[in-house]
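With this grant's support, we have settled on a layout for protein records. One resulting record is reproduced below.
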Amino acid sequence: MTARHLDAENLLTPAEVAALFRVDPKTVTRWAKAGKLNSIRTLGGHRRYRESEVRALLERANMAAEHQPGVA
């Protein structure tokens, strides 16, 4: 992936990712530390997440929930 492509991709804050998954932002940070979600560090050291990666994880989570028995 080129640097130009990275610049064009939307990056989300931990709070934005947390809102999509309805979890605490600290949970998102734990996911990054566990390797479940890749993070990018800003020059100031803050984590950012690629929107495309977050959406893919969200879709996988939704599909897994749909296939669990007993879940409406």
In short: The helical segments are 3-8, 14-21, 25-34, 51-66.
